[in-house]
Specification:
Elements: E1 8-12, H1 16-27, E2 31-35, H2 39-58, H3 64-70, E3 74-77, H4 80-84, E4 89-92, H5 98-109, E5 117-120, E6 140-145, E7 153-158, H6 164-176, E8 180-183, H7 193-209, H8 215-226, H9 232-239, H10 241-255, H11 258-272
Parallel strand pairs: 1-2, 1-4, 2-3, 4-5, 5-6, 7-8
Antiparallel strand pairs: 6-7
Helix pairs in contact: 1-2, 1-3, 7-9, 7-11, 10-11
Length: 291
């Protein structure tokens, strides 16, 4: 696979990040397929991508003409064979569970061309946790995105079995598409930015779980001192509390840390109440629209 060979992008997972990543590459001229397990999920994703296109223009990330021509380049399917048979590069954004990620990659290994590059957008897991399950560990690495509405920074993180050629190809692919790749020399949980961010978010959850201060005031403490636009709880609403819970539960189960387990239980209360953040209209805060 060469940089010029990459023409068809497959996004596994039609959630918030899958929508953003798919839209970005469609705007850059690629044919994009977004795969998920139900038509309802894909219908929701399609509606949200239309709104996303408006946001990206409003945030001066691209002009209206570029955004408009992107939408027709995106197709949606629940059929794995249709999704994978022409894919040149895959980016995966399914829930943060290594067994699930490995299972899905293994499924598409059977469908995709041998030269297809596999990448994961995992937030905190390590590619080596499910690299063997992909069936092509040498052609697999992390290509991790942040909020594409506001930043072009991405993380490129190989695992020990990733070939040097794959790492270089993915880095060049990012550069070609107006992204800023941070290429890691070794695996690190949370890459660079997320490693730092996870400390902030877990500290904020601990403060709320222990009832040290109200959530809005915890956010205000951060915003007021750091002069940022959002505090940790607003950030989590944007990420999606289901994603934050998956990450928290995974590491709590690994470490058996009592505070991490308490934080996971605290988050689960919001999920059980249907409060997943901006995408459901309510998380730690209420929103006057569906995200």
């Amino acid at each position: 696979m060469t940089l010029e060979d990459i023409k068809n992008i497959l996004i596994l997972g039609a959630g918030t990040m899958g929508q953003q990543i798919g839209f970005w590459f469609a705007a850059k001229g690629y044919d994009v397929t977004i795969y998920d397990i139900s038509d309802d999920i894909l219908t929701t994703a399609k509606n949200r991508i239309e709104k996303l296109s408006k946001n990206i223009v409003a945030f001066n990330r691209m002009d209206q003409q570029t955004a408009s021509v992107a939408l027709p380049r995106i197709s949606f399917t629940t059929t794995p064979q249709k999704a994978g048979e022409h894919a040149d590069l895959i980016n995966e954004s399914v829930p943060e569970k290594p067994d699930l990620k490995g299972k899905i990659f293994h499924q598409f290994h059977q469908i995709c061309k041998p030269e297809t590059i596999f990448t994961t957008n995992t937030s905190t897991l390590l590619p080596s946790m499910f690299a063997d399950a992909t069936g092509r560990p040498e052609k697999f690495c992390a290509l991790h995105f942040h909020d594409l509405q506001i930043t072009s920074v991405v993380d490129v993180m190989p695992h020990p079995g990733t070939s040097a050629e794959t790492t270089e190809l993915v880095k060049c692919f990012a550069l070609k598409n107006d992204l800023i790749p941070i290429v890691l020399k070794k695996e690190n949980t949370g890459y660079v930015f997320n490693f730092m961010l996870s400390g902030l978010l877990s500290s904020a959850i601990t403060l709320a779980q222990k009832d040290v201060a109200p959530i809005p005031e915890i956010d205000q403490a951060w915003v007021g001192v750091m002069q940022t636009h959002a505090g940790p709880f607003s950030i989590m609403d944007s990420i999606g509390l289901d994603t934050v819970l998956s990450v928290t539960e995974f590491w709590a189960s690994k470490t058996k840390d009592k505070q991490a387990l308490a934080n996971a239980s605290f988050l689960k209360g919001y999920i059980d109440a249907g409060k997943k953040g901006i995408k459901t209209g309510e998380g730690f805060y209420k929103y006057d629209h569906q995200g």
